[in-house]
Amino acid sequence: MKLMSVKSIYYAIGIFWIFTPAAADSKIVVEDCSTCHRTITREWRSSLHAQAYISPVFLKRKEELSDSGQSSCACHAPDNIAPEFLGAVPEEREDSLHLGVDCLACHMDKDMVAWSSGQQRYAPHFTRMDTMYSQGRFCTGCHGWGKESGFDCQECHMPELRGANSDGPHIEKVTGATHRSHSWPGSRKPEMLSQGVVLTAIRNGRELSLSVTNVVEAHTFPVIDRHQAEIVVLPESSLNPFWRQSVKLVRDSTAEYSVELRDANAHALVELRFYPVPAIWPDSFYVLHKEMID
Ligand code: HEC
Ligand code: HEC
Ligand code: HEC
Ligand code: HEC
After folding, report:
1. How confident is the model at residue 120 (pLDDT cuts 50, 70, 90)?
2. 35-94 confidence digits (pLDDT tens)
3. How confident is the model at residue 5 (pLDDT cuts 50, 70, 90)?
4. Measured on CA atoms in the order 275, 277, 280, 281, is the torsion positive or negative?
5. Where do the structural domains in the chain lie, given as residue ranges?
6. pLDDT above 60: residue 203
7. Which ligand is nearest to the CA of 190?
8. Which residues, 6 or more positions from 202, have their beta carbon under 8 angstroms from its beta carbon?
9. How far is Cα 50 from Cα 69, in angstroms, rounded to an integer?
């Protein structure tokens, strides 16, 4: 009971902070949201959205762009998207660029009203509902492709997880509460990548028949040209593939290959590799699937 009341005071301070005119002068940052949205903030921190302006991949790209006189950083450190840039390319922010795509950019408008697709029940700040937050269009403003696909990226990239979306005293009482994941698994999550593709390898004497299927209906594998995938065949006792082929599959499609083994008894290893950042670490890959050929 005692703990509860201390929390309530903390909570009231949060409300006070959001509604006082003084708050308008001092810059509100992610830390302020983390007071009450701890779980989501922790997830966000681990995401590429949080690293969008500081990751080595972005910094290299930025250098290349500025060398050629262009700049396109708006999606990496956007100003408030809501309401007029929902589903569109946003404008670049002027400060706190290092925070990348942060809570304020995606949720808050200039008047500090929090936009989302949810039915808000207990929010201590102003909220506004817009169904676009649960639609693919919300994402494709920045992720330029996939607009026409009609798929809702959130369904796979923001799965529903256990745990409430905020830590207020009322919310903690809601049992079985869930929130949408804010870690946006993608090219840095081998577990997710391996779910999207299936590898089969069938031997018939010297002949090895391979097939790779992209089982994701929503997009190509890999999604962006910057990421690469390849299928390799290695002899039993060497790290050097004797056969390799780069893989790019449109949605719901299969590629088939045929490889000659040394002889009808030769052992081999087949690997499907994914290179998340070949521009920087050309030799770093995840093995998404492997098959021993005995
Ligand atoms: C890339 C944009 C983006 C960023 C960055 C982002 N969110 Fe979200 N957030 C969303 C979307 C989209 C949804 C709605 C998902 C849905 O309803 O389908 C959402 C949902 C939520 C919800 C409701 C959660 C629920 O129960 O479903 C809360 C609360 C929230 N976000 C808080 C935050 C906080 C706090 C941060 C910063 C740590 C943050 N968000 C960063 C896009 C973002
Ligand atoms: C004082 C605590 C507190 C602070 C600080 C706070 N929030 Fe909230 N927020 C809540 C609560 C409680 C809810 C309601 C959750 C519910 O009803 O499911 C909420 C709801 C939301 C929602 C809508 C979730 C839904 O139900 O769809 C979003 C988006 C959101 N907050 C974003 C933010 C952002 C961004 C910040 C930082 C600028 C922030 N909040 C700061 C407590 C807080
Ligand atoms: C304001 C622009 C913006 C919005 C809106 C946005 N993103 Fe992103 N997203 C980015 C940037 C910038 C990166 C950094 C990755 C990079 O540099 O390639 C990123 C990274 C990602 C990644 C990781 C990519 C990887 O290579 O692993 C995923 C997954 C992702 N976003 C999904 C989503 C989804 C789903 C939504 C909609 C809910 C969304 N994004 C909305 C800008 C945005
Ligand atoms: C049906 C589920 C599903 C939907 C819907 C979906 N994705 Fe994915 N996405 C995946 C899976 C599985 C992977 C990992 C395998 C892969 O790369 O195909 C992935 C990978 C990614 C990657 C990182 C890997 C790479 O190859 O670059 C990005 C970025 C991405 N998705 C963005 C999006 C965006 C943006 C949308 C909405 C237009 C979207 N996805 C819709 C399932 C989905």
Report:
1. low
2. 899 999 999 999 999 999 999 989 988 888 777 766 668 999 999 999 999 999 999 999
3. very low
4. negative
5. 2-180, 190-293
6. yes
7. 4
8. 208, 209
9. 26
Helix (H, G, I), strand (E, B) or coil at 147: helix
- pLDDT for 109: 95
The residue type found at 106 is C
Hey, which of 142, 154, 179, 220 would you mutate to test ligand 3's pocket, going by the most ligand atoms within 8 Å of its Cβ?
A: 142
Atom number in ligand 1 closest to CA 117:
17
Please tell me the distance from the alpha carbon of residue 224 to that of residue 222, in angstroms, as a whole number. Answer: 6
Alpha helices in 148-262 (DSSP H): 153-157, 190-195
Tokens 């500090």 sit on residue: 112
Element (H, E) at 116: strand 114-116
Per-residue pLDDT, 168: 65
Q: How far apart are CA 126 and CA 182, in angstroms?
A: 21
Measured between alpha carbons, how far is 103 from 42 in angstroms, rounded to an integer?
12
Phi, psi torsion values for 90, nearest 5 degrees: -75, -175
Question: Mind listing the pLDDT tens digit for each residue in 221-247?
Answer: 999 888 999 999 999 888 999 999 999
Backbone angles phi, psi at 214, to 5 degrees: -90, 110
Residue type, 123: A
From 49, 166, 175, the mutation candidate for ligand 2 (largest count of ligand atoms within 8 A of CB) is 166
Q: For the residues 136-158, what does the mean pLDDT come to?
A: 88
Q: Please give the class, per CATH, of domain 190-293.
A: mainly beta
Q: Name the residue with tokens 């002889």.
A: 263
